[in-house]
Write a structure and sequence with these properties.
Blueprint (H helix, E strand, L loop, with lengths): L29 H27 L5 H9 L14 E2 L17 H4 L7 E2 L15 H4 L25 H9 L8 H12 L4 E3 L7 H15 L22 E4 L3 H14 L8 E4 L5 H10 L3 E4 L1 H10 L10 E4 L2 H6 L3 H14 L18 E5 L5 H10 L4 E3 L23 E7 L5 H12 L8 E5 L3 H11 L1 H22 L20 E3 L11 E5 L5 H13 L4 E5 L12 E6 L6 H8 L9 E7 L7 H7 L9 E3 L1 H9 L9 H18 L2 H18 L17 H6 L23 H9 L1 H13 L10 H14 L10
Parallel strand pairs: 3-8, 3-9, 4-6, 4-7, 5-6, 7-8, 10-16, 10-17, 11-14, 11-15, 13-14, 15-16
Antiparallel strand pairs: 1-2, 12-13
Helix pairs in contact: 6-7, 7-8, 10-12, 10-26, 14-20, 15-22, 20-21, 25-26
Keywords: ATP-binding, Helicase, Hydrolase, Nucleotide-binding, Nucleus, Ribosome biogenesis, RNA-binding, rRNA processing
GO molecular function: ATP binding; hydrolase activity; RNA binding; RNA helicase activity
EC number: 3.6.4.13
Length: 787
């Protein structure tokens, strides 16, 4: 162009690229403005270099090749910083397995908002080679079934005809199990302390309850003060037996079994004192009188200190059920205090041995544990004196203290398998397994999913029931709007309740994620952070359910609970120790019934856990099977009648994207997913030291793991000691940490309740009482409970 004033000719050459205008950064601190300026400059350089590489058409350019491998360049060679590609394929078209094989012609369609998830790309491969001969194991006979020798009956073990007939006719127990055959005669005839060791589901509860009921019902104490005119023990005769259990759920189960046994001897009264209940009502029951008391250690210690109506001077039995768990939860001090108080307040005198079957003249302590560890040995030293070791087919010289290194094995009829699942596929693989399990009504009636922490339980419950919960919330919101419209015309009621706290707070809901039109599955959630009333009602509903049901829970339900008709146990998160694994899988294959279990492991170091799984088998692990991840997904998401097609990849990806959109569309959902992710990573760091090399948090791919929590980017500021990560976060990271303050406080509370003596206090008596309350509150929490 020519200037009209001086005739200067200017020639500008403008390329087709967009002009980059400089950005002015204002406000905030000087350091923040400088960081933003450098960041913008760096991004502009990266964009320019990518454009140069893309337009040059050189396939050997390193930067272009790396970007294509990472999926950072879209179909039109436009630079993108995200890890996913925007393509224009409609949802029904096939999804290419690897992003590097996308063609431009395939991407030019009409839907520019479709996002292809990288669910099946860049997943690590498994290093475990399956041994086919090892997987072909012959069926084994049940190891915890009732005896069928035709000789062993409850009457032959020393029980009265009335009690034996009640077991046979009312409870449908026709024959004892092997451990009951070993324990019942010993506890009926002898007054020695005993250590009972048996695998899960073998009937340990009946093994110690039946002798106690038999001897109390006989009532031959020789003391008229404890008897009425008819010679029977009554409610006011005193407290004869105390049964301690580590969790509230186990206490309630023992109480339920006890009540069913006492229907034939209705004059014997039993009761419970556990945390979470009103102490006033418990004191009223103690004041009226109980013969058998089931309690948690913390609450019993509280009553021994503060309830005058609790008279333990006549106690003849002290039963410590799940002894290893009592020690793990830090109840050693409470149990020591209970034992000392029972000895101090006892009025039993040294007298000649009473007749067989009558009440003993001394306090008999019974310790029950499926495992024999050093902490159990320490508990035995605290409570047992010259005890006999009772187990299936014991040797003549086997006594408590002789050996504490016996291995505990899973039931022989349990069919256990493992799946090596990459982190990104964990969520869809879990849904696929549940879809397959409940695809046909009656194939699986009940299943239990074990998850490491409470926040993760809540997240998966919401994910699997999201359609039903959203519909319920919409209905509640509509009703509230209608009520608000009515309030404009009517006077406001001050006593009208609000429904805010009920929205999304249910513990039972339809599992819409894996239910079918012909098979409706109900999902239950259970963890230690729920109120006691909710935990009790949820567990009771799951146990009574006659329809297909799933319980998603933490380890709070892994010990001692006898839940009927549980066919399938899924360990979605690996257990924190080998013993926890054995107790988890022990919720199925009980009392001779069949059952199966599946554990999820990540490729890499976690595959070393397979050797630990083999140790829990009597046959050396020949019955341990491997489930192929692709086969699980194909069976869960694949269409019937389709052979080698990849339709299951499309459906799995669509389901994953739907869950991710559901998470992102609501800030509450996003926060819930973030908390579940962070709690899971924190819990991952708490595996026992002996297995820390297998579950090493440094080898955990946090970005891939975020996919399993419906997140497209991993949350920052997890703050795990030893975790692999980048620089410490500054202001934004500190704000994120502030949201987790309560979680860290809860974690510190867990450390204190496990017996840490360095609890700051000025009042020793008050500190001891506070410790007891914390232990009681956390007694049922066997998970790494965050939030």
């Amino acid at each position: 162009m020519e200037d009209s004033n001086d005739g200067l000719l200017l020639n500008f050459s403008i390329s087709d690229r967009p002009l980059n205008t400089p950005t002015n950064f204002r406000g905030g601190r000087w350091k923040d403005r400088l960081n933003a300026k450098y960041g913008a400059r760096y991004r502009q350089k990266k964009i320019a270099s990518r454009l140069n590489a893309a337009t040059s058409g050189n396939p050997n350019t390193n930067e272009q090749g790396s970007d294509l491998r990472k999926g950072h360049i879209d179909a039109n060679d436009t630079p993108r910083l995200a890890k996913r590609q925007r393509v224009e394929d409609p949802p029904q078209q096939a999804i290419t397995r690897h992003p590097t094989t996308f063609s431009r012609s395939a991407e030019k369609t009409e839907n520019p908002r479709q996002i292809i998830s990288s669910l099946f790309s860049f997943n690590p491969a498994s290093n475990t080679v399956t041994d086919q001969e090892q997987n072909d194991a012959t069926p084994t006979e049940p190891s915890n079934a009732p005896l069928v020798d035709g000789i062993s009956t409850f009457t032959s073990l020393g029980l009265s005809p009335t009690l034996s007939a009640h077991l046979r006719l009312k409870l449908e127990l026709k024959a004892p199990t092997a451990i009951q055959k070993a324990v019942i005669p010993e506890l009926v005839k002898d007054d020695s302390d005993a250590f009972i060791q048996a695998e899960t589901g073998s009937g340990k509860t009946l093994a110690y309850l039946l002798p106690i009921i038999q001897r109390i019902s006989a009532g031959k104490t020789g003391s008229a003060s404890n008897l009425y005119g008819d010679g029977r023990v009554r409610r006011g005769s005193g407290l004869f037996a105390i049964i301690l259990a580590p969790t509230r759920e186990l206490c309630r189960q023992i109480s339920t079994v006890l009540e069913s046994l006492l229907r034939c001897v209705h004059w014997i009264v039993a009761g419970t004192v556990i945390g979470g209940e009103k102490k006033k009502s418990e004191k009223a029951r103690l004041r009226k009188g109980l013969n058998i008391l089931v309690a948690t250690p913390g609450r019993l210690m509280d009553h021994l200190e503060n309830t005058e109506a609790l008279d333990v001077s006549n106690v003849r039995w002290l039963v410590l059920d799940e002894g290893d768990r009592l020690m793990e939860l830090g109840f050693e001090a409470a149990i020591l205090g209970i034992v000392e108080r029972l000895e101090k307040r006892s009025q039993l005198t040294k007298a000649p041995a009473p007749p067989a079957g009558s009440l003993p003249n001394r306090k008999v302590t019974v310790l029950c544990s499926a495992t024999m560890k050093m902490d159990v040995q320490r508990l035995g030293e605290i409570s047992l004196k010259e005890a006999v070791h009772l187990k299936v087919s014991p040797s003549d010289d086997d006594e408590v203290g002789a050996r504490f290194d016996d291995d505990f094995s899973a039931p022989a009829q349990l069919k256990q398998s493992y799946a090596i699942v990459p982190a990104k596929l964990r969520l869809v693989a879990l849904v696929a397994v549940l879809k397959r399990a409940f695809i046909r009504r009656g194939s699986v009636m009940k299943a239990i999913i074990f998850i490491s922490c409470a926040d993760s339980v809540d997240f998966h419950f919401q994910i699997f029931c999201r359609h039903a919960i959203d519909a319920e919330n919409n209905a509640v919101s509509s009703a509230r709007e209608d009520r608000a419209g009515e309030e404009k015309r009517l006077p406001v009621s001050k006593e009208e309740p609000t429904d805010d706290k009920h929205i999304g707070m249910s513990t039972i809901a339809p599992a819409t994620a894996f239910s079918t039109p012909d098979n409706r599955v109900m999902l239950h959630r259970l963890h230690g952070s729920l109120p006691q009333s909710a935990r009790t009602s949820t567990l009771a509903a799951f146990a009574r359910s006659k329809d297909p049901a799933v319980l998603v829970c933490t380890d709070v339900a892994s010990r001692g609970l006898d839940l009927p008709n549980v066919d399938f146990v899924i360990e979605y998160d690996p257990p924190f120790s080998k013993d926890d694994h054995l107790h988890r899988v022990g919720r199925t294959a009980r009392a001779g019934r069949s059952g199966r279990a599946l554990i999820y492991l990540l490729p890499g170091d976690e595959e070393g856990y397979i050797e630990i799984l083999k140790e829990s088998y009597r046959d050396g692990g020949r019955g341990l099977r491997r489930s192929n991840t692709d086969e699980l997904l194909k069976k869960g998401f694949g269409s019937p009648g389709i052979g080698s097609g990849k339709d299951w990849e499309e459906k799995a990806t669509e389901w994953q994207l739907e869950v991710e959109r559901w998470t992102l569309e609501d800030p509450k959902h996003l926060e819930m997913a973030r908390r579940a992710y962070q709690s899971h990573v924190r819990a991952y760091a708490t595996h026992v030291a002996a297995e820390r090399n297998i579950f090493d948090i440094k080898n955990l791919h946090l970005g891939h793991l975020a996919k399993a929590f419906a997140l497209r980017d991993k949350p920052g500021s997890i703050k795990i000691s030893g975790a692999r990560g980048g620089k410490e976060t500054t202001k934004a990271g500190r704000q994120d940490n502030d949201t987790m303050g309560k979680s860290q406080s809860a974690s510190k509370g867990n450390k204190r309740q496990r017996g840490n003596p360095d609890v700051p206090t000025t009042d020793p008596a008050g500190a001891a009482k506070m410790k007891a309350k914390i232990r009681e509150h956390m007694a049922s929490v066997s998970e790494f409970n965050i939030g």
